Amino acid sequence: MKKLIEEQFDVVVIGAGPAGMMAAIRAAQKGARVALVDKKEEPGKKLLMAGNGRCNLTQDQDNVVELSNLYKNGRFLLSAFNSFRPGSVQEFFAGNGVPTKVEKNGRVFPVSDRAEDVLGALVNVLKENNITFLYKSHVVDFFLDNEGRISKIKLKKRELFPKNVIIAVGGKSYPATGSMGDGYEWAAKMGHKIIEPLPVLVPIKIKEDWVGELQGVSAGSVSIAVYQGGKKKFSNEGDLMFTHYGFSGPLALNMSRDIAKLVSQSDDDIKFILDLKPYLNFEQLDEIILTDFERNADKKLSNCLHDVFSPKLLDFVLRYSGLDMEKHAAKISRKERHVLVNLVKNLSVTFDSLFGFEMAMATSGGVSTREIDSRTMGSKIVPNLYFAGEIIDVDGPTGGYNLQMCWSTGYLAGESAAKNTLT
Ligand SMILES: Cc1cc2nc3c(=O)[nH]c(=O)nc-3n(C[C@H](O)[C@H](O)[C@H](O)COP(=O)(O)OP(=O)(O)OC[C@H]3O[C@@H](n4cnc5c(N)ncnc54)[C@H](O)[C@@H]3O)c2cc1C
């Protein structure tokens, strides 16, 4: 049995997520005999959750330098992006029955809005390329020979003797989908440095309870300045979603990458100053409010400003301002108006904490890029080992960036592992 399995597979890919599936496909297309191993009963559990089930599968950005600038360790990804660009990803899926469309901020989705279709296309291509599926197969450990090459993979119920191995078991985010950080231990044992994995692209908890009153408000464009220990650290702009615990939506998720870093570096308090109307300066917003008050001079304050703020936000701004709602607009003083403007442009809240891996869309940290050859995704330590996907210390913002990284690193790792077998 051992001998038979050894003869069967040139490349064993561990992890049937997006990176592993793409790696297996590319290795097989290049002529390798490939096995795809996963501990779950079926592939792509996390992929099915992507983009709320719609799967934001890449970014509409074919300038790989600009693309790479948005990632942690982006330069490391340049060769991978060059070998399989966002445009090639779209062609791949369109050519396999899943045409794509571009939405706001360059986010690319399948026309059908169904992550199932993306997974279905991958599974079809895996089958067409005669890839052997070994599901419900939990990899436990690796063994090296005297030359430092992987000679044996120990699964819970069997052993494999591969010529090449691609580890694509993901990071630690959403552990229920199968990615529980198993790969870090293996990589460390084989001599790779592991950068501490941190949960990123997570919602943000806020201390002030009143934020919960805004639950459900989705603010199209908000600017948030982040202060730690009284010093401004950075500011970001984007779409913010208020929730019962604090903030979510693309702005909060993307900011969590930098906040995770701040939290890991210092215990000092973090404050946020929100500008809910960043495209208007103080005077312009004051002018708009004044015009509204002049138009509605004989109305009570509670019946004004409907054209300036969304209903829930208006309700909050008026109540939180402490102004007398019964007062007629004509009677509102300049000073009172400025209370409103200030509230909208300088809303101060206190950071409480970030959600953990159970709510993280990605992991920052993982196998250090220093010991992976960026031209091949091959280990610089173990000659027949490759890495792909989220297990590597690279991560990007929301918007299809993380899946693009998985497709590209998977593609390059698959191609390189096949070449290593066949030359
Ligand atoms: C809710 C959510 C929504 C997301 N939406 C998007 C989006 O719209 N766009 C985007 O670009 N990114 C999105 N992401 C991020 C993206 O899904 C991940 O970056 C991507 O899935 C990582 O792929 P991967 O192949 O590296 O690992 P994973 O998808 O985590 O797959 C790893 C696989 O390895 C297997 N495995 C783990 N350990 C073992 C073991 N010991 N033995 C055998 N098999 C093992 C697991 O079962 C799993 O199948 C989202 C993430 C989440 C959580």
User: If classified by CATH, what would the architecture of the largest domain be?
Assistant: 3-Layer(bba) Sandwich
Termini separation comes to: 26 Å
- CATH class descriptor of the largest domain: Alpha Beta
Can you give the helix content as a percent range?
A: 25-40%
Mean pLDDT: 94
The whole-angstrom Rg is: 25 Å
Major sheet: arrangement of strands: 12-15-14-13-16-17
Specify the CATH homologous superfamily of the largest domain: FAD/NAD(P)-binding domain
Summing up helix and strand content along with how strands pair, one would put the structural category as alpha+beta
Look up the CATH topology of the largest domain.
FAD/NAD(P)-binding domain
> What's the tally of helices?
13
Bound molecules: flavin-adenine dinucleotide
Note the beta-strand portion.
Answer: 15-25%
Count of DSSP E strands?
21
Account of the 3D structure:
- The chain has 423 residues and is α+β, with helices and mostly antiparallel strands.
- The protein folds into two domains: 2-198 and 364-422, 3-Layer(bba) Sandwich (FAD/NAD(P)-binding domain), CATH 3.50.50; 203-355, no CATH class.
- It is 34% helix and 24% strand.
- The protein is built from 13 helices and 21 strands.
- The chain has helices spanning 2-8, 18-29, 45-49, 64-68, 78-83, 86-95, 115-128, 182-189, 249-265, 282-295, 311-321, 334-345, 401-422, and strands at 11-14, 34-37, 58-59, 100-103, 107-110, 132-134, 139-144, 150-155, 159-160, 164-167, 194-200, 204-206, 218-228, 231-242, 246-248, 270-275, 347-354, 362-367, 372-373, 378-379, 385-387.
- Strands 12-15-14-13-16-17 form a six-stranded antiparallel barrel.
- β8 (150-155) and β9 (159-160) form a beta hairpin.
- α2 (18-29) runs parallel beside α13 (401-422), α10 (282-295) packs across α12 and α11 packs across α12 (334-345).
- It is elongated and about 85 Å long.
- The two termini are 26 Å apart.
- The structure holds flavin-adenine dinucleotide.
- Flavin-adenine dinucleotide (FAD) binds next to α2, α3 and α13.
- Residues 14-20, 37-40, 45-47, 49-51, 55-56, 138-139, 168-170, 173-174, 177-179, 182, 361-362, 389-390, 400-403, 406 line the site of flavin-adenine dinucleotide (FAD).
